[in-house]
UniProtKB/TrEMBL annotation:
Alphabetical list of PANTHER family matching this protein: OS06G0652100 PROTEIN (PTHR31373)
Domain of life: Eukaryota
Protein's name in the database: Uncharacterized protein
InterPro entries: DUF2828, DUF7788, RNaseH-like_sf, UCP015417_vWA
Pfam family, one: DUF2828
Location of the region described as Disordered in the Swiss-Prot/TrEMBL record: 557-584
UniProt domain DUF7788: residue ranges: 233-391
Compositionally biased tracts (Acidic residues): 558-584
Amino acid sequence: MRLRDQKRILMAKKAIEKYNNDENYRFLYEHISDIFARLLKSDLEFLNTGQIDKISLAAKWCPSLDSSYDRSTLFCESVARKLFPYDSDAEYRGIEEAHYVYRVRERLRKQVLIPLRKALELPETYMSRRKWDRLPYDRVPAIAMKTYKKLFFKHDPWRICSHLRYLKRTVKPKFNFSRLLPHEILSLLNYAFGEEIAEYHWRRVVEDFSSKGCFHNCISIFSTAPCYNFSNFCYAFSLLTSEFCESPWKGKVAVRNASFDVDFIKIEGEDLRSKLKTLKSHDFICVRVPEILDKVINMALECNLSTDKMIKKIFFFTYSGNSTLWRWKTNESESIRKKFEMNGYVIPDIVCWNLRFCLIPTVELEDDVTFIYGCSNDIFRVFLEGDGNLDPVAIMDVELSVKVLRLIDGDVKPAMGYIYEVMDKAKEQIWKNFNDVQRRYRPILRIIETRWELQLHRPLHAAAYFLNPKFHYDPNFVGNEEVRVGLYEVIEKMCPTALERCRIDLQLEKFDKAEGLFGKEMAILTRTKKQPGPRNLNAKKKSKKKVIEVEESKEIVDVGDDEEDVQEDANDEMILQDDEDDNFIDLDYGDDFD
């Protein structure tokens, strides 16, 4: 037997031993394979009905058969068994187990992975097969184009150059547009041959916001330096807002001139790189709110502007901890307001955003000026997707999501049993903040729910929420159908025999009515004081039984060290990331990447 075959057999044996002896590993393994099987099954339905745009990337991230990841975990076999169970086809009856496994693995490859990957037209498929001349560049997402562009120029220079020239001269070319934030688009200019890609995406962003009427007649002022994070966001947003203004504000930005007075200067340049160079050539120093408002009203009077062409909103960006430059004195405020009203104008909304404090976003409202502290890509995305309205409540809703994430990562409380309750309350608070107006809170919930559904919304969280005495005996407890379905899914998963499930159901009835030990005085007093945690009552036994037992005020679920599920989405992401290099994308990049 060859050495390679011996190594493969040894890897398979280790995978089987790990699966049989480690309950935590087995639970995570089965959970991840369930996710892949469910997604692949739905993707096949989308493929058969022609709904290609709804197909997920499960086929991309699923390991290829006989890849290094598959050999070390036997993962493809697990997915194949769930897609094609033993009793799903008559041809499997009467055959040996080894033949059954071989057939379902081949079906996974031929009937699932190959058709789905072909439909997705993934660039990695062509790259791994060295078919550079057939690579469909119009299907390459923006981030993939940014990552692989050096390889494209190395192996297929003529076609990639032709494609970039096509993007440059075409107003609305066919392209797989993966939304990049404005400052991420500017970062493309730092790469070789990234200018054409950046120009195209910049046009798309401008067209998108312009069609929605976002940031109409808004200006931005900032003080920044190249060393700061998010300085590119300030540059990018200033360029964007200058595009959406009417004359005399269009294509201009506010700076301090040689006499240290506030002035609006024209952004020179025909392309994105030259415009950015113009911005960086000026000194941007924080100006006080009264100064910019005085300049705005004076320009409006000089040009005899109508009210519809007046500036509607002014954004101040800074990294300085000193916010006194933003505030104005009472006499200044009254004087400027009177000047605007006397000439028939409405004073613009003022938003002052300090990007220095990044831990938790906070919002203050003082003298009709909105003060925002903190920054992150998620906040910027909500800010840009909010139809041009930077609602302070939206930033506070992002803070609610941050609190949920800190609960998951923190050590004060175990996330299991708490995250479900916290997430529901966060959503309810968001609805209240926006007076239940769906149009206003939809962009925020879209971001939150995507991560919640894909990463954290698990039956085990619902079960732990139901079984947590602190929540269960609360008058506001929500034990709806979704929660109970999650609970019973966990019970069915962990308890293979009907007898065990019946015993558990009887205990749940006592728990629900606070009977037996649950009704004892000690249990009642400690419902909100003890923190539920997993307990292994049979640690010395290697039995596969999952015990659910009641003991006063503690959590009544013991599913064999299921605390590992808290780390599930992180482990899931890590495993899938590792698979990219070792399995499906079998590329030898060498020194092609920096």
